[in-house]
Amino acid sequence: MNLLQVYIDYVHAYPLTMAMIQFAILGTFGEILSKWIINKNTKFPFSLGMTIWKMIVWAILAIGIKYAFKGFIGFTDYLVEHEMLPELSKFGKAFTISALMNLQFGLTLVILHRVLDNIPLKVKNWKGLDKGMMSLIWFWIPAHTMTFMLAEDFRIGLAALWSVVLGLILGFFNRK
Fold first, then answer.
1. Which of 37, 68, 79, 138: disulfide with 84, CB 3.0–4.6 Å?
2. Each residue's pLDDT tens digit, 70-119
3. Is residue 163 included in any domain, yes or no?
4. 128 versus 53: which is more confidently predicted?
5. Counting beta carbons within 10 angstroms of the beta carbon of residue 62, is it exposed (0 to 12), middle (13 to 18) or buried (19 or more)?
6. Considering the domain boundaries, does residue 7 fall inside one?
7. Angle 152-173/15-39 helices, nearest 10 degrees?
8. Which structural domain, as residue segments, surrounds residue 146?
9. What is the pTM of this model?
10. Would you list the DSSP string of 8-74?
11. Separation CA 69–CA 62 (nearest Å)
């Protein structure tokens, strides 16, 4: 049995757990990369406790993301089936799912992520939240359009990987 098949088997057998693991690792790694780029050094940017907290936050977010992926596919199919949207090509359907998901669920996710990030810091930091909201348009809608063009088995893994890519982009644009 090859590693790809093992991955697919685990995604099928443990969909939420696999989503949580992938986001906990890759989402946190994206934040680490961003800090490395911003600070122009590779000193580990978080304490052990903060790293564990960030992994827990990403795991919690992964549950919502997994449900949103399933739900917005069904939502889009329902709208097409009831002629509230036209028949869509593969790309059109992927774009529509991505746009509907990011412009509805994505806003809640960005706010929830910030709230959870603020808890261990004991602050109410809303600075730059508008940039997080804008990333839904310039990054997440195009990224998830590509994601929804993939076979279902690979969507959550790619979505988690996009968190690393966004970390690189944000790190680059926020360098000191």
1. 79
2. 999 999 999 999 999 999 999 999 999 999 999 999 999 999 999 999 99
3. yes
4. 53
5. buried
6. no
7. 20
8. 17-173
9. 0.94
10. HHHHHH-HHHHHHHHHHHHHHHHHHHHHHHHHTS-S--S-HHHHHHHHHHHHHHHHHHHHHHHHHHH
11. 10
